[in-house]
Structure formats: structure tokens, C-alpha cells
């Protein structure tokens, strides 16, 4: 952005009249020295700007004038000055950059955009969070972790830029696996440019429910157990120990449907909560006891398979059938074994009897057989 200054109108000299409408292009950050003698000048500021220079509306003063500094912002539409023989300095300050707001989910990759006109490969751009936290620094090819030091440990190894896009003026960065503590105001600055380029992004990282490290009251994994059953249903209990703050405890089926709690007990001891929830299960499937602490987005669960109904009947029928089959096979084997022993014994006895009843051969009978 830049500002064009128009000096219009004037009295007290042909020089002023000749410059009835004079355009003066200046840097937004530059100081503009305008010497005015016996003139009434109206200055209009509009969003255009290029370079700085001095402008003398009337004849030069006899001696060095006393300086007068007037601050002008691009938002001002006009400024009226009446003076005689004074040097007026117009100081143009850059407006506050437009702040972009971004909302992302925890663990996602975040791209923070920043750009300049022309290549930034040989420039310096600096990313900071909340004014003083060093996020990323690029200086003519060197970056944090590659020739430069000073990066905040919070962002070490998680921030990168786009080297292939530097020639296109791209000074954007990406943050890997965004954390809730990454939320804040990020500024991208080109400190060596004239004027200094600066952009801002307000980043909000919303947490997601997931298992958090133990400690600080995060609930441990809940204990689940079966405490009763009938032919068509089972009673299950979930127990949470030592959580803070008080957790929400629910039984859920595999589709995430919450089961009605038959009984809930909660007790606080030494600032920690001990919670027990019971639920009745009447269908086969996977069931989970889910523990949630919204305060720091902690969620943990224990899951078990509960076999009930037709599945149980089929399973029990198959197991029962196998047992009966094994018993029958064992009985048949025993019967076969004993029958075999009996038959073998009878054959042995008959053979012995046959040998006993047959008389020995005489010598003549033996010779004839030969």
C-alpha cells in the first residue's frame, strides 16, 4: 500500500498558484518535508505510494524554519495546513495489518500464509508467536536447525517453509501436528524491507478427544467385569479410579449408542473421583466403557465382546455337540477294544485246542509226505 499526497490551492505567491494541483508520491514510512510560506494548503491522502521527496510550495524562507511534525495515516482523507515560513514534516505510519483468523483441529497440519512481491530467496523473513516466541526464521538460505539457532523448543522439528516457492514471494510456513498450546497471534515480518512488511494471523487450535498422558488428573484405563448373567442378558460393571476432575462415564455399544446406566456410584477421596457404572447387555457384540474429561479433552476406554442370544445358543450347541461326539467316539473305541480282546482270546483258545486234538505223524506218514 502507498499514499499519494495532493497539494491543492494556495495564496500568497505565483509559485503556489502554479501548483494548484500537485501530486507528490511518497513512501508510506518516509518523512515528507514541505516548506510553506504564506500558503493555505489542503492535503488529501489516498491509498497509493511510491517514493519520497521534498516539495517547496512557495519561495524559500529567509532562514531555517522551525520544524513542525504532523502525523498522517492512510485512513485520513485530508489534512488542512495554514502556516508561514515553517517546515512541515508529514510522517506517514503504516496501518495495523489486517489480522486473519484461523481455526484448526489438534494434530492437523497448519499452513500460515505470508507473501511479498518478487522473490524472497535473498531476503529475511521472521515468524513469531505472541510477539516474542520464535517460530521460524529464514535468512538468505539459512533457517532454524540449518545454520540458525534460537527457535523455541515448542516448535523445534515441527515447522518448515516452502523452498521451491521462494522465488514466487512465498514466505508461508507449515506447522505439523498442531497442538492446543500453538494457539496465539502469529506475525510474519520482513525486517529489512522498506517499508517493513508485516502480516498477522490469529490461530485457534481446537482440541480433539483422545488419550492424554497420565498425570494431572487424567483418568486411567477403566476396569470392566461381568457381575451377573441370565439366559438372555448379562450385567457389566465399569470402574474408574482416581480421576480429576470428575469424569463422564458411559457404556456404549459398537455403534456409539449409549446404554442406560442401571446404577451409578461416585465418590470423592482426596480430590480424586472414583466412579462405578453398571449396564445391562441383552445383545451380542462389542461394548465399551468410555471415560471422558472435557476439561483437557481426555478420553479413554476399555472394550470387551459380550456373547448373548442366538450366538450363544449356536456356540453352546456346537460345543455341546462336539462333547457328545467325543464321548460317543470314546465309548465306541472302548467297545471295539474289549470286543477285539474277546475275539482274540477265543481264537487263541480254539487254536490251542486244535493242536491238542491232532495226533503226531508216524515215520511212514512223514516219509510219504516228503
Automatic annotation (TrEMBL):
Residue intervals of the Ig-like domain = 95-204, 214-293
Q: Which UniProt keywords apply?
A: Immunoglobulin domain, Membrane, Transmembrane, Transmembrane helix
SMART domains, A to Z: IG (SM00409), IGv (SM00406)
Subcellular localization(s) per the UniProt record: Membrane
InterPro entries, alphabetically?
Answer: BTN3A2-like_Ig-C (IPR053896), Ig-like_dom (IPR007110), Ig-like_dom_sf (IPR036179), Ig-like_fold (IPR013783), Ig_sub (IPR003599), Ig_V-set (IPR013106), IgSF_BTN/MOG (IPR050504)
Keyword Ligase included in the entry's annotation: no
Q: Which GO terms describe its molecular function?
A: signaling receptor binding
Q: Which Gene3D superfamilies match?
A: Immunoglobulins
What Pfam families does the record tag this protein with? C2-set_3 (PF22705), V-set (PF07686)
Q: Name one GO biological process term.
A: T cell receptor signaling pathway
Entry's SUPFAM superfamilies?
A: Immunoglobulin (SSF48726)
Which domain of life, per UniProt? Eukaryota
Gene Ontology CC, one term: external side of plasma membrane
Membrane-spanning residues? 317-338
Q: What is this protein called?
A: Ig-like domain-containing protein
Organism lineage string: Eukaryota, Metazoa, Chordata, Craniata, Vertebrata
